[in-house]
Write a structure and sequence with these properties.
alpha/beta
Length: about 850
């Protein structure tokens, strides 16, 4: 892969420069050696030429002497013998003397002394030849030489001696010159040898230096290559560890860097996963697809458009990002956002359901109160109309309409996961066996019903009544999908949803489940319909034949139970709905139906606490008609006053959601403190409240959901009062006035024994739950929805000892609230509940000294945060 310039490139450049610098003296030294060698060679040739020249002069000088001797020898032979053959050497010597004398003169033209001697030798030689010639001419063959010949010979001898003397001096000078020139040649040779030796030494040193530099360069290069390979491995490992797919193309449109996720996510063949792969091979594949990720090629060339692009490839949702890189290439990154898209879809679904839940919760509370008033009055009127069949029938029709309205509200609450469940450890095989006959009667003869339960079926923690409703809803939908008849199969088996399946379904937790599958052979549905069947009020049935809440109720029940629901359907191939309900290892609880006991009244005293005047009056009338003594209160404060007055109350029948500063759980706790044997029955038309958490009724509590019928009220009240065979205790002695005052004071103010905590949270459901947890831990709680309201409470209530606040509050932030609280009440302890880490919100200093409680938190974490240590 291509790496950019950096420290590694700088090291390499430095080594290259050092090697280049080392070659410069080598070149200079080589040039100097060549020059010196050439100069010494020229000098050596010159010196050798002079030596040779000297030898030539010596030869020429000796040749002159030899020529003179030859001429003299020829003369003497002739004078002695007078034979003509002796004259030939004489004449040749004369010619040789002229030639050798000219050569001597030519060779010594640079030597003035020798030139002078050459002139002298010429004269002497000419005289000597002349003497020799005269002697020859005048000589006779007499027995003895004549005086004249002898005189000529003597003169010739003197000339010869002079010639010998001059030749001797000439030879002496030449020998001296020869010595000088020979010494100069030797000196030149010595200098040349020394220069060669010095050059060789310098060359050796330079070569050694170059060798050292080259070795250092090689070591540096090896380290650089190793470092580069290491960096390349780190880069590749980094790229391979990134979940995104990444590829970098260089300016020559070849692949320079990549990870395998790029090929995996964008579905390019792995054969192209190599450095230098040409982009044209990628482009051939990319152009054949509906959504291209490579930059387009126009008439002007390749145009890189930076930014994000959302595409679908091989069933995945991908965000593709293109950008330029510093080397004028470009980068393509592909991010798999399928999980995020599913999460966003789930979040939107959850938000939609949450919105419906809030809507239905508020509507249910008010609507159920209205239905309760109507239902109670209709039940009371039914007794008065017994003698008038027509009126009685009309009343029954009205009561049936109330029941239908109640079921409609219950279905909305089920979809929104706000129905009050009473889960028990249940064996669904036994429950299905008991329902089979009911299903056959309900569905009719044209529908064949088959129920299959696997052996060794696990127990599951569910509300049995809701399971029955779910099976019945699914069975009725299947019947409607088979107008000409068909087969309905209900199957129960153990199942395990693994981590891979859970990863593909955000709402699923891997683990053991009991699977309930309902299959039919009906018309089936298209994928578009399958995606909408769980939406409230959506139905494929003709208008007037369905509310569109059946499957949504099943969906809400399964989700509220902590399970998973999956639907499989194809047009014309039937439908299968699978419900995965969480396994429990608890033993099966008794599911035997309780026989409906006859409606009974009693003589006990019941305190009805209801803020709605119409509901309060109707309930009081129904209870009075049943024979009970009824006391009334419109809120918790008034009810505590009644209890503190000394009136004996056997049952406290209270609404869960009431106005006033005293929360319901705190009101009940105070009531039980005033009268320890009092029993409590809650009622509510909205289940997301202080006694229902996550859709489940708190353990040990009794709830009668609104709207309820007179017989339901009678049986529930009688069951609570008669629980565990307890008898109604005898009326206690009424407390004295001082005792009643003390009880009232304790009911209204127990701040001397419990710490008061101000809970500040803008989300109502979180605030309500937090208040319940605070009260469960034995503290008193006051609540505020925002910062300004909390500041007012801090100013007015001096008993507040702890401020428990969220950071993300509307208007005034949590940090600002803490600042105000510390200015107003320095003694108040601060506890911050936030989704941030235990270090608090980044960049803030106002939270120093505060305790942090990370959301979500449980009861034990809250206890530790509030504990004064």
């Amino acid at each position: 892969m291509a790496l950019g310039a950096g420290p590694l490139g700088g090291t390499r450049d430095l080594a290259n420069r050092l090697v280049l610098l080392a070659t410069i003296p080598i070149f200079l030294l080589a040039a100097a050696a060549i020059y010196v060698a050439y100069a010494f060679a020229q000098t050596e040739r010159s010196e050798q030429a002079w030596v040779v020249h000297t030898y030539q002069v010596i030869d020429a000088t000796r040749a002159l002497l030899s020529d003179a001797k030859d001429a003299e020898t020829g003369q003497r032979g002739y004078l002695l013998t007078h034979k003509p053959e002796y004259l030939a050497p004489f004449h040749k010597a004369g010619e040789a003397i002229a030639r050798d004398l000219s050569r001597f003169k030519t060779l010594t033209r640079d030597n003035p002394n020798q030139q002078q001697r050459a002139g002298q030798l010429k004269q002497l030689m000419e005289r000597r030849l002349d003497f020799l010639d005269r002697a020859i001419k005048i000589s006779t063959p007499a027995a003895a030489a004549s005086p004249e010949v002898i005189q000529i010979l003597d003169q010739g001898k003197a000339s010869m001696d002079a010639i010998r003397a001059i030749v001797g001096h000439a030879l002496g000078d030449e020998h001296w010159l020869l010595g000088q020139r020979t010494q100069a040649a030797r000196t030149s040779e010595e200098k040349m040898f020394v220069s060669a030796l010095v050059g060789a030494v310098l060359a050796f040193l330079v070569v050694m230096l170059a060798t050292i530099l080259l070795m250092r360069y090689n070591r540096t290069l090896k380290r650089s290559e190793a470092e580069r390979a290491h960096q390349a491995n780190i880069l590749q490992a980094t790229l391979d560890s990134i979940r995104d797919g990444i590829a970098v193309f260089e300016t020559d449109n070849t692949l320079a860097a990549f990870n395998l996720n790029f090929f995996h996510l964008l579905n390019f063949p792995p054969e192209l996963a190599y450095i230098g792969a040409p982009i044209e091979k990628f482009r051939v594949i990319d152009n054949a697809r509906s959504a291209q990720v490579l930059p387009p090629v126009t008439a002007k060339g390749q145009e890189i458009e930076t930014g994000y692009q959302r595409i679908t490839r091989a069933g995945r949702e991908l965000d593709v990002y293109r950008t330029l890189v510093p080397n004028d290439g470009f980068l393509i990154a592909a991010l798999d956002v399928s999980a995020r898209v599913r999460t966003e879809a789930s979040l939107r679904q959850a938000q939609k359901m949450e919105a419906v839940g809030h809507l239905t919760g508020g509507v249910a509370h008010d609507f159920n109160n209205l239905l309760q008033v109507v239902s109670a009055n209709l039940d009371l009127m039914a007794n008065d109309a017994k003698g008038n069949p027509q009126s009685a029938q009309r009343l029954q029709n009205a009561i049936a309409a109330v029941s239908r309205g109640s079921r409609l509200t219950a279905q909305l609450l089920a979809f929104a996961r706000r129905q009050a469940l009473e889960p028990r450890s249940t064996n669904l095989g036994r429950l299905l066996q008991e329902m089979t006959d009911l299903l056959r009667r309900t569905l009719g003869e044209r529908i064949e019903v088959e129920a299959i339960a696997a052996g060794g079926l696990w127990n599951t923690q569910v509300d049995p009544n809701q399971v029955e409703n779910a099976i019945l809803n699914l069975a009725i939908n299947s019947r409607d999908a088979m107008p000409d008849g068909g087969k309905l199969t209900i199957e129960l088996t153990n199942a395990y949803l693994d981590d891979e399946y859970a990863a593909q379904h955000e709402e699923v937790t891997a683990g053991q489940y009991v699977m309930l599958a309902v299959s039919d052979t009906g018309q089936g549905m298209s994928p578009e319909l399958v995606g909408r069947v769980f939406e409230p009020f959506f139905t494929t049935k003709p208008e007037g034949q369905g509310t569109g809440l059946g499957l949504s109720q099943v969906y809400g029940f399964v989700k509220q139970t902590g399970g998973h629901i999956k639907i499989y359907s194809e047009a014309g191939q039937g439908t299968t709905v699978k419900l995965y309900l969480p396994r429990t290892k608890k033993p099966e609880e008794d599911l035997s139906p309780v026989a409906l006991s006859p409606i009974e009244g009693g003589s006990e005293t019941i305190l009805v606490v209801e803020d709605d005047e119409g509901v309060r009056a109707a309930v009081a009338d129904m209870l009075a008609e049943l024979g009970y003594s009824v006391l009334r209160a419109e809120d918790a404060s008034q009810a505590l006053t009644v209890l503190a007055s000394g009136a004996l109350v056997n049952l406290l029948f209270t609404d869960v959601v009431m106005p006033g500063p005293i929360p319901t759980r705190e009101f009940v706790r105070r009531a039980q403190a005033l009268q320890p044997k009092i029993k409590v029955l809650y009622t509510s038309g909205y289940t997301q409240n202080a006694i229902v958490h996550d859709g489940r009724l708190d353990e040990g509590l009794a709830l009668l959901s609104k709207p309820y019928r007179r017989d339901e009220l009678a049986r529930k009240v009688r069951t609570i009062l008669s629980a565990r065979g307890q008898v109604v205790p005898p009326p206690p002695v009424k407390p004295t006035a001082p005792e009643r005052a003390a009880l009232a004071q304790a009911a209204n103010d127990d701040k001397s024994t419990k710490t008061k905590i101000l809970v500040v949270e803008d989300v109502a459901l979180i605030r309500m739950t937090t208040v319940d947890m605070v009260e469960e831990l034995g503290y008193r709680a006051v609540e505020a929805a925002d910062g300004p309201q909390a500041v007012i409470l801090l100013k007015q209530d001096a008993d507040i000892a702890i401020l428990l606040t969220d950071l993300g509050l509307p208007g005034m932030s949590g940090n600002e609230l803490v600042e105000h609280a510390r200015e107003l009440r320095p003694d108040v302890r601060i506890v911050v509940a936030s989704g941030y880490s235990s270090d608090g919100q980044p960049g803030t200093t106002t939270l120093e000294g505060a305790r942090f409680l990370a959301k979500p938190f449980d009861m034990e974490q809250l206890r530790r945060a509030l504990k004064d240590e």
